[in-house]
Amino acid sequence: MGIEDYGGGPGAEQTGVLVVTTNDVPGYRVERVIGEVFGLTVRSRHLGSQIGAGLKSMIGGELKGLTKTLVETRNQAMARLIDQAKARGANAVLMMRFDVSEAADVGTEVCAYGTAVILVPASA
């Protein structure tokens, strides 16, 4: 994986939905609040990555296999968030956040959530 693979999800140009962590977007105003949307996924780690992570933790350094899994998991949660926003008629999600927790000691739950809205140019 290159550095570009460790960034955020796809942009609004590709999805049709702008996702931001802010309350507002400069140059735009909220025409309508649709409500909360979220994307959720639970992933388990396979035995090989758990063994590799255990060995790596003894000598230190990045756990690249786990990092890759978490990036993929976050991207899947984001894709589901965007799909839900689109299905509800939104063109943006404000105040997007991630919540990560252990799921019954068998995996990691990642939830991307925010407020689905319809944005229009401020001059409109």
Chain-wise SSE layout:
Blueprint (H helix, E strand, L loop, with lengths): L11 H4 L2 E2 L8 E16 L3 H13 L4 H24 L4 E12 L3 E15 L3
Parallel strand pairs: 1-3
Antiparallel strand pairs: 2-4, 3-4
Uncertain stretches of 5 or more adjacent residues: none
Order of helices and strands: HEEHHEE
Radius of gyration: 17 Å
Most strands sheet: 4 strands, mixed
Trace the largest sheet across and list its strands.
1-3-4-2
**Gross morphology:** elongated
Query: Which secondary-structure class do the elements indicate?
Result: alpha+beta
Oligomer: single chain
Q: Hey, roughly how much beta strand do the residues contain?
A: 35-45%
Count of individual helical segments: 3
Our measurement of the CA-to-CA distance between the termini, rounded to an integer number of angstroms, reads 42 Å
Helix content: 25-40%
Mean pLDDT across the residues is 84
Number of strands: 4
What does this structure look like?
The chain has 124 residues and is an alpha+beta fold. The protein has helices at 12-15, 47-59, 64-87; strands at 18-19, 28-43, 92-103, 107-121. Strands 1-3-4-2 form a four-stranded mixed beta sheet. A hairpin with a 3-residue loop joins β3 (92-103) and β4 (107-121).
